[in-house]
């Protein structure tokens, strides 16, 4: 591939660029395109494909390969790509010959730049390089693990999300990708982040496998005070499930990329909050200090859970954020946005520090992203396998929570367990717990009498004389 002149590159190169950007007024990046490309529809944009024969490092048989995304459709922003080798960074130069265009217009310019890139590695078979990660659009990126398909996304940073004001979308404006060695298990990517309010630098050490891990370093340099910042933001889709099928006319039992928010808080409590497709936007905040982890998870893993032979939602990854170091006080925020289809992401989760970020300072957040099918935090606790809600007696709502794993198998079906249920309003009646012969786990069930309440926070946990046997189930019921 064609490359420009080399420059020295080190660990502080991108943070230094971010600090310099933050010291100046923000300037919008290059989003100018030839008219034919600027107006290209989605189907024509999909016709533009990178030539796999020109994948970076393919001829050298290195353990990773790189392919680029063309600019167009929603992805007009120019993103500069650089290749790093032996302490030198060289710009990767665009050429139309890198792509096949199909029915899409072929540009005549040789200086259009790229929209992003994707990483390939032999994750499922030793003789085939699968696409394992992609960076495309604003600060979005996503990845897969072994045997999984693309689903939810991560972002570099979220600003004013769900705030009732215009959301700001920071952009990755440049990447520096380190050349892997012949026996490398990881590939290192550096990213420069910019927006009107903040500049930043990120470093990802990406290790594909049965669980694909991004060891992530984030450095932020605010231009202005940031009161509504989202660290390690995750974005997903939840349309419907057994707990909320009102108005749904669909042959499938469930449709979602993620079915719950998982929390492992600083006090050592493991929490499961099923997702919801609300009638109006709702935001929940889970206060914490020194969080141990949070994530948007996809727990249902059987084809019959979705019965979708095309989308295969049972193969969408979960994404778990593991903070490294002390993140102090703040809250995990969950934003749920109404959606009438499965094509728009409507779920966002992130960490928000309690104290606003001040202008002119540096802030550091290190964390590990786990793209996986399952992730265990406290394996001794039973996990929520499903939440079902339907009509009860005299206008009540019947809530059923299925639990599996943990100590349940050791305790046996004759164990003396109880369902501890709490509601912020209304009345809980007939709370019971019993072994579930159909699943081999246990079931908690109760009736909620809402009375005049329009919104009720619910909490349930399965207990024995020693304490919790299950993780904590949380739910927001709305009329």
Blueprint of the fold:
Elements (H helix, E strand, L loop, with lengths): L6 E2 L4 H10 L12 H4 L3 H5 L2 E2 L14 E5 L10 E6 L2 E4 L7 E2 L15 E10 L2 E9 L3 E4 L9 E3 L2 E2 L11 E8 L8 E8 L3 E10 L4 E11 L6 E8 L1 E3 L14 E2 L3 E5 L5 E5 L7 E8 L3 E5 L20 E7 L4 E8 L10 E7 L9 E10 L10 E9 L5 E8 L3 H4 L6 E6 L3 E10 L4 E9 L5 E10 L2 E2 L3 E7 L1
Parallel strand pairs: 4-12, 20-34
Antiparallel strand pairs: 1-5, 2-6, 3-7, 4-5, 7-8, 8-9, 9-10, 10-16, 11-16, 12-13, 13-14, 14-15, 15-26, 16-25, 17-18, 19-20, 19-22, 21-24, 22-23, 23-26, 24-25, 27-28, 28-31, 29-32, 30-31, 32-33, 32-34
Helix count, per DSSP? Answer: 4
Q: pLDDT under 50 segments (min length 5)? A: none
Shape verdict: globular
Class inferred from helices and paired strands: mainly beta
Total strands: 34
- How many strands, which pairing sense, and closed or not: the largest β-sheet? 16 strands, mixed
How much strand content do the residues show?
35-45%
Give the rounded overall mean pLDDT. Answer: 95
What portion of residues is helical?
Answer: under 10%
Distance between the termini: 59 Å
What radius of gyration results from the CA coordinates? 24 Å
């Amino acid at each position: 591939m064609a490359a420009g002149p080399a420059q020295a590159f080190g660990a502080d190169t991108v943070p230094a660029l971010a600090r310099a950007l933050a010291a100046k007024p923000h300037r919008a990046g290059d989003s100018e395109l030839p008219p034919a490309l600027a107006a290209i529809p989605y189907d024509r944009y999909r016709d533009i494909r990178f030539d796999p024969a020109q994948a970076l490092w393919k001829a050298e048989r290195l353990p990773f390969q790189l392919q680029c995304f063309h600019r167009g459709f929603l992805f007009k922003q120019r993103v500069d790509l650089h290749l790093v080798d032996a302490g030198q960074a060289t710009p990767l130069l665009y050429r139309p010959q890198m792509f096949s265009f199909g029915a899409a217009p072929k540009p005549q310019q040789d200086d259009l730049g790229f929209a992003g890139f994707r990483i390939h590695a032999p994750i499922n078979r030793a003789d085939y390089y699968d696409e394992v990660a992609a960076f495309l659009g604003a600060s979005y990126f996503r990845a897969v693990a072994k045997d999984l398909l693309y689903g939810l996304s991560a972002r570099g940073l979220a600003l004013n999300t769900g705030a009732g004001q215009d959301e700001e979308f920071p952009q990755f404006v440049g990447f520096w990708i380190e050349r892997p060695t012949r026996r490398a298990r990881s590939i290192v990517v550096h990213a420069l982040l910019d927006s009107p309010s903040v500049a930043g630098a990120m470093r990802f050490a990406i290790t594909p496998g049965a669980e694909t891990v991004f060891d992530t370093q984030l450095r932020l340099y605010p231009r202005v005070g940031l009161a509504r910042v989202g660290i390690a933001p995750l974005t997903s889709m939840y349309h419907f499930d057994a707990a909320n099928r009102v108005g749904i006319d669909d042959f499938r039992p469930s449709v979602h990329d993620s079915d719950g928010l998982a929390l492992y808080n600083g006090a050592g409590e493991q929490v499961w909050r099923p997702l919801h497709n609300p009638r109006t936007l709702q935001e929940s905040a889970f206060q914490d200090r020194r969080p141990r982890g949070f994530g948007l998870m996809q727990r249902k893993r059987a084809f019959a859970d979705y019965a979708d032979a095309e989308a295969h939602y049972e193969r969408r990854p979960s994404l778990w954020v593991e903070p490294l170091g002390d993140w102090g006080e703040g809250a995990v925020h969950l934003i749920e946005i109404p959606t009438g289809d499965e094509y728009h992401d409507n779920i966002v989760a992130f960490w928000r520090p309690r104290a606003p970020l001040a202008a002119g300072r540096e802030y550091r957040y290190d964390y590990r992203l786990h793209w996986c099918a399952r992730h265990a935090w406290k394996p001794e606790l039973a996990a929520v396998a499903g939440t079902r809600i339907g009509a009860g007696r005299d206008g009540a709502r019947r809530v059923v929570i299925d639990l599996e794993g943990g100590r349940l198998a050791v305790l046996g079906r004759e164990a003396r367990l109880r369902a501890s249920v709490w509601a912020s309003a209304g009345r809980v009646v007939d709370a019971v717990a019993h072994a579930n012969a159909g699943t081999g786990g246990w079931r908690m069930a109760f009736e909620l009498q809402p009375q005049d309440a329009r919104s009720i926070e619910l909490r349930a946990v399965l207990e024995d004389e020693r304490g919790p046997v299950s993780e904590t189930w949380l739910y927001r019921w709305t009329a």
